[in-house]
Amino acid sequence: MIYTVTLNPALDYVIHLKAGLELGETNRSTGEEHYFGGKGINVSVILNRLGTPSRVLGFVAGYTGEAIVQGIMAEGLDDDMIRLKNGASRINVKIKSEDETEINANGPEIAPDELEQLMSRLDEIGEGDVLVLAGSIPKSVPADIYLKMLQRVEGKGVLTVVDASGEVLKQALPLKPFLIKPNLAELSGIFGCEPKGDAEVLQYAKKLQELGAKNVLVSLGSEGALLLSEEGTAWKIGVPVRDRVNTVGSGDSMVAGFLSGYLKSHDMKEALILGSAAASATAMSPGLADQAKILDMEKRILRGDAGIAEI
């Protein structure tokens, strides 16, 4: 079983503006959408749409939390979210015009006993299971919570995936996660410099392996992705379509597609192709991509619309 953890899920309120956001003025939208999510939940949604089951762990609170749970259940996901006693799950605002502007809320307070409820859930995870830790850490939770979670399942034969940034990711590396998925900005944040070109990206991916990561999947936005496998083989893959309508959830879709592909084939190249297809499909969708669009993108990659090569 795959277990995804979302510590601070949200309702995303997407607002479309014809022109740019004008501060201090009344802005009228041309359309709105609502999505439930959070990085771990997004991973579970795409996994489910690809026929790979998972269980959703994390916290919800208040009326917004119930709306998130309703969305999880409507998607057919296995809900194991902990209901907090106080507060309300956050609402994030995404403003789409010429540029994308995001306002992300803090979210509810998580009490120590509620956090321990989640930690005890991890004791159910064992040999052959997958644990996905994705997204930001709420202020009320210890900053090293991902490290503690990895330590909780250490030595149990669990494949661990960490999609985080900065110090949170660095703390996790000595626990040898099976997969990490930094983007270029996160690489820059870790190493203090901006990698340019595939050779430099690969160089920093190797540094992350030296720090403990087994497989490093670097998302490169419109330039595709680069994968450095545990065996030392590296691939670069492009994107089949460059016209994007949405960037929210593309990285989560890449993680989900990669995991689904790997668990079905145990082939890193095939996993990279499905991960890239899922990321591209979501980038071409107003929300998270459906199965048909992901499989269409996979076909495009396989017929050569996106270059893939060992580097």
List the helices and strands and how they pair.
Blueprint lengths: L1 E5 L3 E7 L14 E7 L1 H11 L4 E7 L1 H13 L3 E6 L6 E7 L3 E4 L8 H10 L8 E5 L10 H9 L5 E5 L2 H7 L6 E2 L3 H8 L5 H14 L4 E5 L5 E4 L5 E4 L12 H16 L2 H16 L7 H12 L5 E3 L1
Parallel strand pairs: 1-4, 1-8, 2-6, 4-5, 8-9, 9-10, 10-11
Antiparallel strand pairs: 2-3, 6-7, 11-12, 12-13, 13-14
Overall mean pLDDT stands at 94
At the fourth level of CATH, the homologous superfamily is Ribokinase
**Backbone structural class:** alpha/beta
Strand content: 15-25%
CATH topology: UDP-N-acetylmuramoyl-L-alanine:D-glutamate ligase
* Rg over alpha carbons: 19 Å
Q: Could you characterize the architecture of this molecule?
A:
The strands form 2 sheets. The chain has a 10-stranded mixed beta sheet with strand order 5-4-1-8-9-10-11-12-13-14, sandwiched between helices. The chain has one domain (2-7, 37-89, 109-310): UDP-N-acetylmuramoyl-L-alanine:D-glutamate ligase, CATH 3.40.1190.20. It has 311 residues and is α/β, with parallel strands linked by helices. Helix 5 (166-172) links the parallel strand 9 and strand 10. The longest helix is centred in the C-terminal third of the chain and has 16 residues, at 250-265. The chain has 10 helices and 14 strands.
